[in-house]
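TA notes, week 10

Several of you asked for a full example with nothing omitted. So below is the full record: structure tokens for the whole chain, then the designed sequence directly under it. When grading your own attempts, check the secondary structure regions first.
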């Protein structure tokens, strides 16, 4: 109950922040988008699998938005649905062979596949626009054509609503038998096989869900930025998503969004103070990781458990 009230209060604060500081609207939209992608990474971390290639799905859906818009699809809802399905499809294809591997092999194969995708995006100039990328026009919202500032506001509040709905859906998934099977894969995969549960299918479903979440984040980011570039798929972007997931904490769905918001706000504040903003961000991350091994979400969860 306390967790629900706290989450509702946090969402209300997020909804009001752009009213007080309009410049925060873009930062928060981007943070929510990265939160979706980091949540996808966190789903796989439940099974002990670290993906250093999830930026590929982030970029795949972002490019899907640009291609669909170029093909004449001009509705926000339809663009999001089709692009997420595209990300999930790419996830199903890649996951069908990647989930056969574990530990460092899984991580490195994800990295290798994502870098192939990045290279294709950067080199196929006639299709993807190369390093110049592809512009994403402002779509209509349920048939209503808006100006860019109004659309960005709608996108922010739409993303906020999706964060709650998708967060609840993912929490139900993680608390379902399929979600519990993920933790069992991490602790004792062989025993799960003895019980007759197909580990490959459990992991493939998790991989597709994870890719769809990363795709949703990429689609929102593409619409918010207004341009899709190959850097969306670069390995540092994948590492950034892993960092957000670990920083926020994988103990709950909220962790990914807390980590993304913390990192984006910290970055925005640091760049206004000094050009050496990496020093501030890095030092803060070291402090958080050392003193909060369960992530920022773990700190809130521990306080809630203490208060019971």
């Amino acid at each position: 109950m306390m967790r629900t009230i706290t989450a509702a209060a946090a969402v209300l604060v997020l909804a009001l922040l752009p009213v007080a500081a309009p410049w925060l609207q873009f930062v928060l939209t981007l943070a929510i988008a990265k939160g979706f992608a980091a949540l996808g990474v966190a789903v796989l971390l439940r099974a002990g699998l670290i993906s250093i290639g999830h930026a590929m799905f982030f970029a795949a859906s972002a490019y899907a938005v640009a291609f669909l818009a170029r093909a004449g699809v001009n509705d926000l809802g339809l663009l999001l649905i089709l692009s997420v399905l595209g990300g999930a499809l790419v996830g199903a294809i890649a996951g069908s062979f990647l989930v056969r591997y574990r530990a460092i092999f899984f991580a490195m194969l994800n990295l290798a596949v994502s870098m192939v995708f990045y290279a294709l995006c950067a080199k196929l100039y006639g299709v993807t626009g190369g390093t110049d990328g592809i512009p994403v026009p402002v779509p209509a919202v349920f048939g209503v054509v808006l100006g860019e500032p109004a659309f960005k506001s709608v996108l922010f509040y739409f993303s906020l609503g999706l964060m709650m709905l998708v967060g609840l859906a993912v929490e139900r998934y993680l608390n379902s038998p399929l979600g519990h099977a993920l933790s069992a894969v991490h602790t004792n995969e062989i025993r799960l096989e003895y019980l007759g549960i197909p580990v490959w299918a459990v992991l493939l479903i998790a991989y597709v869900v994870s890719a769809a979440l990363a795709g949703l984040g990429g689609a929102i980011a593409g619409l918010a930025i207004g341009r899709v570039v190959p850097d969306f798929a670069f390995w540092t972007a994948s590492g950034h998503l892993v960092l957000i997931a670990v920083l926020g904490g994988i103990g709950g769905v909220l962790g990914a969004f807390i980590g993304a918001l913390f990192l984006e706000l910290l970055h925005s504040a640091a760049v206004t103070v000094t050009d050496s903003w990496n020093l501030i961000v890095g030092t803060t991350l070291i402090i958080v990781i050392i003193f909060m091994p369960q992530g920022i979400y773990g700190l809130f969860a521990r306080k809630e458990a203490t208060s019971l």
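The longest strand covers residues 134-135. Use that as a sanity check on your answer.
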